[in-house]
């Protein structure tokens, strides 16, 4: 049994916030600095109090609508997020309740910017094993909540949003191959090292990053994992129709495409308008390319992500 993508959806909160808007808000930065190093021109930032479940719900509803699947038919809901609404219950359970679904298995996956590829890989295995038939896989983040707005080296890089796919059991591919990896020895180069303990936040509640170390690690593993899933599916990386990589930085995306021999025109890029939306970045980019008519049925699409942990993963999808 294969897992086939039958619907995609996404949602971005509010209006775009440009690099110049950030500078006007008092951050000591410029459009030239941000755009030349990252390719980011604008991002969407949710209003205070907005939750990942609110963003994820809309993305999920749009994916269900495209698939022509009713919420009550779904038997598995996985949400990838590092900004859950609460410590518990899971954001997946909250979205399940808002959708009016009862009885589906629902849980969150925490693999930061690789979270969507993790959630997709897990859902694929549930469907391939025959235990579940219709899955909702969501990446939803309100990263603006965990940014230190006094740290210009990180706060300009991220945005908020959500994306989702519906996966259904099918006789033909579907997801052709997937791979998931982590290296916990790299936890120090990207993290939010705080925690809630005895009613207090202890440690640092904001995102901290060694940008240059992250850059090098990301380019290396994104190329490796793309080659791994293509080898599993016995397809050359150059035969992929579309690469949908995690949207962290245009220079990481371009370096990965070059290493894999994939032309710039076949790489989906949203980082210029979305910034880095962590677990939401891949499904947001996928949905945008599907709705624009760029990604077509029958094409081979490689999705891949990398994030804190460090974690990384990929899936090769026959669309
Ligand atoms: N505006 C203006 N100047 C800035 C800004 C800013 N927003 N941020 C930092 N600077 C300054 C620094 O203070 C420093 O100034 P100094 O030389 O006077 O001390 C100078 O710019 C250079 O700072 P670096 O941090 O060395 O800049 P670098 O060239 O490494 O670029 C960047 C930083 C863009 C973060 C880069 O390292 C990068 O892209 N790394 C990848 C990280 C990434 O994409 N992370 C996303 C999350 S991880 C993930 O999704 C996998």
How would you characterize this protein structure?
With 319 residues, the chain is α+β, with helices and mostly antiparallel strands. It has two domains: 170 residues, Peroxisomal Thiolase, Chain A, domain 1; 143 residues, 3-Layer(aba) Sandwich (Peroxisomal Thiolase, Chain A, domain 1), CATH 3.40.47.10. The strands form five sheets. A five-stranded mixed beta sheet has the order 1-7-6-4-5, with helices on both faces. Helix 3 crosses helix 4. The chain is globular, with a radius of gyration of 18 Å. Bound molecules: acetyl coenzyme *A. Acetyl coenzyme *A binds next to helix 2, helix 6, helix 7 and strand 14.
Please tally the β strands and state the result: 15
User: Strand percentage, roughly?
Assistant: 25-35%
Q: What's the overall geometry?
A: globular
* Total domain count: 2
Ligands in the structure? acetyl coenzyme *A
CATH architecture of the largest domain: 3-Layer(aba) Sandwich
Major sheet attributes: 5 strands, mixed
Q: Just give the CATH class of the largest domain.
A: Alpha Beta
Mean pLDDT: 97
Strand order of the biggest β-sheet: 1-7-6-4-5
| Cα-based radius of gyration, to the nearest Å | 18 Å
Q: Determine the number of helices (DSSP H or I, runs of at least 4 residues).
A: 10
User: What structural class do helix, strand and pairing data support?
Assistant: alpha+beta
Query: How much helix is in the residues?
Result: 25-40%
Under CATH, the homologous superfamily of the largest domain reads: Thiolase/Chalcone synthase
Span of the ends, CA to CA = 15 Å
Order of helices and strands: EEHHEHEHEHEHEEEEEEHEHHHEE
Low-confidence stretches: none
CATH topology name of the largest domain, in short, is Peroxisomal Thiolase, Chain A, domain 1
């Amino acid at each position: 049994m294969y897992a086939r993508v039958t619907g995609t959806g996404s949602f971005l909160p509010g209006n775009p916030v440009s690099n110049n808007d950030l500078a006007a808000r008092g951050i000591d930065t410029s459009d030239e600095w941000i755009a030349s190093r990252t390719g980011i021109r604008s991002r969407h930032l949710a209003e205070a109090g907005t939750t990942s479940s609110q963003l994820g719900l809309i993305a999920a509803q749009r994916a269900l609508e495209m698939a022509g699947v009713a919420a009550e038919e779904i038997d598995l809901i996985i949400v990838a997020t590092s900004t859950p609404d609460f410590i518990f219950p899971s954001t997946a359970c909250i979205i399940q309740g808002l959708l009016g679904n009862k009885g589906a298995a629902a849980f969150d996956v925490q693999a930061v910017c690789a979270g969507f590829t993790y959630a997709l890989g897990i859902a694929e295995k549930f469907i391939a094993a025959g235990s579940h038939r219709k899955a909702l896989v969501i990446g939803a983040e309100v990263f603006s909540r965990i940014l230190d707005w006094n740290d210009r080296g990180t706060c300009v890089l991220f945005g908020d949003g959500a994306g989702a796919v519906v996966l259904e059991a099918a006789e033909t591919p579907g997801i052709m191959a997937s791979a998931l990896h982590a290296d916990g020895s790299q936890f120090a180069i990207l993290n939010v090292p705080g925690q809630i303990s005895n009613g207090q936040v202890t440690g640092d509640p904001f995102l901290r990053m060694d940008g240059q170390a992250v850059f090098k690690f990301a380019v290396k593993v994104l190329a490796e994992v793309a080659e791994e899933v293509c080898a599993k599916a016995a397809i050359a990386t150059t035969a992929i129709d579309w690469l949908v990589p995690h949207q962290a930085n245009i220079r990481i995306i371009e370096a990965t495409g070059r290493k894999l021999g994939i032309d710039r025109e076949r790489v989906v890029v949203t980082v210029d308008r979305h910034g880095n939306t962590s677990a939401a970045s891949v499904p947001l980019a996928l949905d945008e390319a599907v709705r624009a008519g760029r990604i077509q049925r029958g094409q081979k699409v490689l999705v891949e992500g990398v994030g804190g942990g460090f974690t990384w993963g990929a899936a090769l999808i026959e669309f």
